[in-house]
Amino acid sequence: MTEPVTVGTLLEGEHQWIDGRFGQFLQALNAGSVNAEPLDEAAHVLHRHIFLEEEILFPELEARGVVGPTAVMVQEHGQICDFLERIAMLIRDGAPPDRIQQVFDALRSLLEEHNAKEEQVLYPAADHLLNSAELLRRMQGADPPHGWLCRAHRGETG
After folding, report:
1. 122 vs 145: CA distance, rounded Å
2. Quick one: which of 21, 31, 48 has its CA closest to 100?
3. Is residue 111 assigned to a domain?
4. What is the pLDDT of residues 133-155, one digit of tens each?
5. Domain count, the chain
6. What's the CATH code of the domain at 90?
7. Torsion angle of alpha carbons 90, 93, 96, 101, nearest 10°?
8. For residue 1, is it within any domain?
9. Within 13 Å and on the Cβ side, how many CA atoms surround 35?
10. Domain range enclosing 76
11. Over the stretch 100-143, which tens digit does the pLDDT of each residue have?
C-alpha cells in the first residue's frame, strides 16, 4: 500500500531528488572534473522548491501562527541561493574542482540541517494544520515567474 501524497511527502521527495543530483555532481568533483549538468538540474528544481515553500506553503502556515520557523527557513533559503550563485560563478570562472568542492560542501552541510528542520517541523505542521489536497493542487504546475527571487534576496525576512 502506498503512502498518500501530502505536502510533506511531495516536498521530501523533492529533497531526495535534489540530493541525488547533487551526489552526481560531487562524484564528478571527487574524480577531479566538473560536470555542471546535475548541479544545474538540481539548482533549477531547488529554485522552484523554494518558490513553492515561500509563495504557497509559508503564507498558509504563517496565517496560522507558524511564523518563527518560516522566518528561519527564509533566512536559510537566502544562504542556499548565495551558495548556488557562488558555485555557478566558480564554474564559470574555471575554478579547480577542489575549490568548487569547498563551497559545495558548505552548501550540502547547510542543506542537510535545513531539510531536517523542514521535514521534522514544517512539513508535519503543514500536513496537520492545512488542507493538503488544496495545497497540492496549488503547487502542481506552479513555477516561479522569470526573475523571481527568494524572500531573503528581496529583503523580506518572513
Report:
1. 24
2. 31
3. yes
4. 889 999 988 999 999 999 999 98
5. 1
6. 1.20.120.520
7. 10
8. no
9. 16
10. 7-143+149-153
11. 999 999 999 999 999 999 999 999 999 999 988 889 999 988 99
